[in-house]
Design goal:
The protein is α+β, with helices and mostly antiparallel strands. The chain has a single domain, classed as 2-Layer Sandwich (Nonspecific Lipid-transfer Protein, Chain A). Helix 1 packs across helix 2.
């Protein structure tokens, strides 16, 4: 997955895939049970987006759109997604500034916090 991608976020999502296989990841899927779709653009929202699905029902990360209706879809620039996922940018501030667009369930969106991501080792 990450090998073809130019996105910094792709490496983070690859780590998420490994994280979901751990006990901590399994408890996350039990706790949340939501499906998030991420549309991540290299430079400008809406252009050349790569789509990833983080399925916290099945505990998997897939490159590509969800085959149904995700609970929530987020659109980010790569750098903004990376900043939110690593805790360097507050998700609410990202939304207010227009750095993050949200479609779908607002309650599902509010459960998307940097805590769901594993702490990056070296990215």
């Amino acid at each position: 997955m990450a090998s073809q991608s130019q996105l910094k976020s792709a490496a983070l999502l690859e780590q998420m895939k490994l994280h979901l296989a751990t006990d901590a990841g399994k408890s996350l899927t039990k706790k949340l049970g939501l499906v998030y779709q991420f549309n991540i653009a290299p430079q400008k929202l809406g252009l050349d987006e790569e789509i990833y699905t983080v399925d916290l029902k099945k505990g998997e990360v897939i490159k590509g759109p969800y085959e149904g209706k995700p609970d929530c879809t987020f659109s980010f620039k790569d750098s903004d997604f990376f900043a939110v996922a690593t805790g360097k940018m507050n998700p609410q501030m990202a939304f207010i500034r227009g750095a993050m667009k949200i479609k779908g369930s607002l309650s599902a969106a509010q459960k998307f916090t940097p805590d769901i991501f594993p702490k990056p080792s070296k990215l």
